[in-house]
Amino acid sequence: MRLTLRDFTPADEPEVLALFADCDDWFQAATGHPSGPGDVQSLFYALPEGAAFEQKHLLVAQAQDMIGFVDLVVDHPAPGHADIRFFLVPKDLRRWGIGREMAKALSERFPEVTRVHVRLDDFKPGNEFLKAMGFVLNGQRAVLELAPRSDGR
C-alpha cells in the first residue's frame, strides 16, 4: 500500500467528519462524548498552551481514499519535539499496519523531530498501539525518543 500524508483542505471536511463518526469509540474514550460537526472546525483553534498557530498541522493520510488523520503541533513543548493531539484510523482498517505507515510518513515529513509526546486517554487500542510503537507510557503522557537521522536531514 502506498500512503501519502498531505495537508488537510476544506474539501476534506466531509470525509474527515465521516472518519470522526467512524472513530466514535476513540471520541467516547478521550472526550466522554461522540464526535460532532463542530469538531473539525475546532481543530483549527485547539492549540496547547504556549504553541503558535504556525506550529499546528492537520494531516490526511490517503491511499485511494482517506485512511487516517493526524492533528499535531511541531516544536512543542520544545524545539525538535512534536505533540500529537490525535491520530485516527477507521475501525475496519485498524491493525493492518496503517498506523505504522502513518508514523513512518510523519518521521519523513518532519525529520527534525526527535521526541514525540501523546496525551493518554482511556482508549485501550490506542494505548496498545503506542506501546507497540515503542512509546513509554507515564501517567497521562506517552513519549517516544527518536534517534536523529544519520543522513544529515
UniProtKB/TrEMBL annotation:
Gene3D superfamilies attached to this UniProt entry: 3.40.630.30
Keyword flag rRNA-binding: no
Limits of the N-acetyltransferase domain: 3-153
InterPro entries assigned: Acyl_CoA_acyltransferase, GNAT_dom
Keyword Ubl conjugation applies: no
Molecular functions (GO terms): acyltransferase activity, transferring groups other than amino-acyl groups
Domain of life, per lineage: Bacteria
Keywords: Transferase
PROSITE patterns: GNAT
Protein name: Acetyltransferase (GNAT) domain-containing protein
